[in-house]
Amino acid sequence: MHMTHSTFTILLGGNLRVTDRLRDTIAGSRFIAADSGMRHASALGVKPELWVGDFDSSDAALIAQFPHVERQAFPPAKNETDGEIATAEAIERGATRLILAGALGGERSDHALQHLFHAMSLAERDLDILLTSGDEEAVPLLPGTRTLDLPKGSLFSVIGFSDLEGLDIIGARYPLDNFSLPFGSSRTVSNVAEGRVEFHLRKGKAMILARPHDFTGA
Questions:
Q1: Which of 32, 132, 144, 160 has the fewest Cβ atoms within 10 angstroms?
Q2: CA-CA-CA-CA torsion for 88, 89, 93, 99, nearest 10 degrees?
Q3: Which helix (H) or strand (E) holds 30?
Q4: pLDDT tens digits for 108-152?
Q5: Which residues, 6 or more positions from 144, have their beta carbon under 8 angstroms from its beta carbon?
Q6: Which residue in 150, 132, 136, 134 sits closest to 218, CA to CA?
Q7: What is the rounded distance in angstroms from the CA atom of residue 154 to the CA atom of residue 159?
Q8: Cα 8 off chain centre by
Q9: Per-residue CA distances from 67 to 46, 71, 147, 187 (Å)
């Protein structure tokens, strides 16, 4: 995938497994770390241009590791999460594509859920968004067309954030054509990619959750 300087990877505090697919995805990106998300920088071999947060979950050893990265400190009782501050900084610096690394899984379901909703709101502002933990990826699906390059046999699901109308899924074991999905239905959970998968949506909003290294459905 061709990357431009307008792609920013935001390092967040959730789990992150470094895979070849993840390395390929972030190649050529600029980086901003949100608080404890900075711990992923060493594993990825990158140096963020900015580190934001209240630093309540960054220990002294981590801070000592990156003495030359510009830091923006915020009080713990702020209105936005560190991730929101980091994404706002990236957008201010010209981001049109955001990769939220460490956004999924981990101990805090509230954080993961908030990242998903925040990603949806960013997608509604015409930003290209990918959330990833290395093991799992999530991409907002809004009216229009979206394609995902997934390994053949890997699992993915479409989770509706509203009623969905006119949903097509092409290139999957269980294709759909002009499908209406009621909000809360599990009908589109656990599909299997046959390779590149194309999605069309006429009305509604959803999140595509993919597991590119999981072939248990195959």
A1: 144
A2: -70
A3: strand 30-34
A4: 788 889 999 999 999 999 999 999 999 999 999 999 999 999 999
A5: 200, 201
A6: 150
A7: 17
A8: 12
A9: 14, 9, 40, 50
Per-position DSSP letters for 35-63, written without gaps between them: GGGGHHHHHHT---SEEEE--SS--HHHH
Q: Are 93 and 9 in contact (CB under 8 A)?
A: no
Query: From the centroid of its chain, how far is CA 202?
Result: 23
| CA dist., res. 51 & res. 35, Å (int) | 7
Cα Rg for the chain, rounded, in angstroms? 18
DSSP state letter for 203: B
Q: Which residues of 30-65 are buried (b: 16+ CB within 10 A; e: fewer)?
A: bbbbbbbbbbbbeebebebebbbbbbeebeeebeee
Instruction: For the full predicted model, state whether its pTM sits above 0.85.
Output: yes
Which residue type sits at 170? I
Beta-carbon contacts of residue 180 (< 8 Å; ≥ 6 apart)? 163, 164, 165, 166, 167
Mean pLDDT for all residues in the chain: 91
Extract the tokens encoding 119: 């990603």
Amino acid of residue 51: W
What the block records as the tokens of 175 is 């294709």
Cβ contact 8:98 at 8 Å: yes
209-214: average pLDDT: 95
Contact criterion met (CB below 8 Å) for 185 and 124: no
